[in-house]
Design brief:
Helices cover about 50% and strands about 15% of the residues. Helix 1 packs antiparallel against helix 2 and helix 2 crosses helix 3. The longest helix has 20 residues.
């Protein structure tokens, strides 16, 4: 049930479906008394609850997956501690994905581009590895677009 709640919360973000979030909320509410009595026995439920309460950090990458900048983006993301991160690849223009969460995310000027959003509030897109690092160092409330 905990894994289902966790997956439902992530699906709610990816597909923009409130019903997934509502199902996860019911599951978490049912487990709340058990989590309070024996938290060590319900760690996955606690992780799902954290995602529910604090939201996700959504990272979308667009552009040529073989480009050196894209390689740098993936390295930077892998080196960061980013709780509740959700990484999506929008693809290259000719193979563009159509998920609601990545709608409008395209490579800028034909070069790899990264978007970082927290609780559906997005920073300006990053076109360089240095710009991407800044997104993880600055609170979302400062750089939100």
């Amino acid at each position: 049930n905990a894994l289902a709640a966790f997956a439902l919360l992530r699906l709610a973000i990816i597909f923009g479906e409130k019903r997934y979030e509502q199902l996860a909320e019911k599951t978490l509410a049912a487990a709340a008394p058990m989590m309070q009595r024996a938290p060590a026995g319900f760690l996955t439920f606690i992780l799902a609850s954290d995602l529910y309460v604090h939201g996700a950090t959504e990272i979308t990458l667009a552009g040529d997956s073989r480009h050196p900048t894209m390689t740098a983006f993936r390295r930077i993301i892998g080196e960061q501690f980013i709780p509740n991160r959700l990484i999506m690849y929008a693809g290259e223009e000719e193979r563009k994905q159509t998920l609601p969460v990545i709608e409008g995310r395209e490579a800028m000027k034909g070069l790899p581009t990264a978007w970082v959003c927290r609780n559906r509030v997005c920073f300006a897109p990053a076109a360089t590895p240095e710009e991407l690092v800044e997104k993880f160092e600055t609170p979302a409330s400062v750089q939100a677009d």
